[in-house]
Amino acid sequence: MTVPLTAGGRVAKATRPSRARIKTRLAVWSMITPALLGLLVFFVYPLVMNVYYSFTRYDLLSDPQWVGFRNYVYLFTQDPRVVTATVNTLWFVVILVPIRLVAALAVAWLLVRAKRASGFWRTLFYLPALVPPVASVVAFVFLFNPGTGPVNLVLKFFGIKGPLWFNDPNLSKPSLVLLGVWVLGDIMIIFLASLLDVPQEQYEAAALDGANGPQRTWYVTLPHIVPVLIFGIITGVIGALQYFTEAAVASAVASGSAGVVTTNPGSILGYPGDSLLTYTQWLYVRGFSNFQLGYASALAVLLFIVASVVVGLLLRRFDAFSSEGKS
Amino acid sequence: MTAISTSEHDIPRRQIPQRKAVKPHRILSWIAEHTVLAVLGVLFIGPVVFVLLTSFMSSTQTLTASLWPQPWDFGNYWKAFTQVPLALWFGNSALYAVLATAFMLVSSVPAAYVLAKIKLRFANVIFLAIIVAMLLPPQITVVPIYVMWAKLGLTGSLWPLILPNLLGDAFSIFLLRQFFLTIPPEYSDAARIDGNGEFGVLMRVVVPMARPGIAAAAIFLFFASWNDYFGPFLYTSENPNAWPVSYGLATFHGMHGTDWGTTMAVTMLVTIPVVVIFFFAQRVFVEGITLTGVKG
Fold first, then answer.
1. Which domains are delineated in chain A?
2. Taking all residues of chain A, what is their mean pLDDT, rounded to a whole number?
3. What crossing angle do the helices spanning A133-143 and A172-182 adopt, rounded to 10°?
4. Which of A46, A117, A249, B257 is 20 to 30 Å from A273 at the Cα level?
5. pTM as predicted
């Protein structure tokens, strides 16, 4: 894989005296060195250490003890909640991501057609994405709370008995999907920009060739937006693999309002039942509640392998990130 | 490279080719589309309306089935500050977001400049590493990084989340580089001929020309820090005095028997700064989002 790089300037011209060249080199390296150090200290080194820790037993108080593959054996054969956590995370990957993308595309499509007050509509549909995630989750748990929540009060007005939403193990994840759709603005804006960017001449040419509406959508619009669709799918999957904040906050707030009192954070995580226990939360519990840092590292290695495959897929479409892609 | 703006004024709206006469089915589809838009609009704005209304309800009223404040009680916004150290939490959030953003700018603007404007050996390797670091979930490196900060005795504070920005932030470097690439090389070459060193070219040419991009990167990091939950959860959960307000809000309901009215007031207070900043910087913000996705 090659990274196309456009560099405007040159470090030094051959005709320049060498003192100036040294000065330039010094300047360039002083500009890039902090970031290089950052990559080493906060990315490369921890990545390597994480693999090492995954073969040890480590509680932060005493030195890491080599245990071979024991953490991995435990992970794959004995850990009582890792299967639940994995399944929950995959649920968000398979259900939440596509629903969000389809909804975002549908809203973007509607916004392209809205000729009047388009700025108003765009702002309105974008705004929820701005709300800090913790605030939006707290708001949704309130809106959907079974007792006095506005959603169930409105349903009651229509004679429907509202369900328990965030307090029902079967509905807690779908409730978070509703939240995910509400905050679709970030990816919707990207879709909208792409839809508005379809060259007008191509529509005109297609119309001249006798293409009807659906045909124009299929043959003109779709090929144009495929790159951003793929971008949306892959970044969505990467986001869902690390799904943490929304699930953790929903569990904490919903269990609080249900009067679940506990001193062990491990038992709030995942409430109700284990329905919102995601993989990254389980990693957090094992590592930082139980201080089984070696085992948490093994969980992180597994996540690393899965995420690397997804990131690799994105990087194969490196065009999306470089300046020299098709424009 | 074209930076695509979806703001009203920048690009003319594209229009689907119009037929000569307005046909009845066009009017019908216009009505259908706008009905769907209006219904969706109500659904999207509804949560904000209910949260705002509830924040003005007294604690007794939030336990009833009424949806409209009777009477309007503005005390929740004040009450929240007496129940929990809310002012301290807001201060912590501001400190976290401002310092993280300032540190990021100092370290990432020069790095992005080098990656965008200088021919450098290994530049593509460095850039690839930055992209991979940006894309991979932060949880895969969280254990060793936590161990590092624990050994330095800085867990229990927000410093483990602020200080790394002094050594560059991957997403910010990526975004800034994309902006810097849009500046034609002729400008920096001219500045070099005028006798500017690389620092001079950066400060006198690139930074002034890339001001919207730098603003976008700063706002993104400011919001990410203000909104951060996982980081404070990891490093400060044992020490309530170090909590930022995003973390405090998550623990707020149920604590001290607080009711929904006060909780919704705090929810509004956490959200308002973000929305205000957004409206002041809407154009660069939207440009920044689209640049991350619609590149190429």
1. 82-291 (1.10.3720.10)
2. 88
3. 120
4. B257
5. 0.88
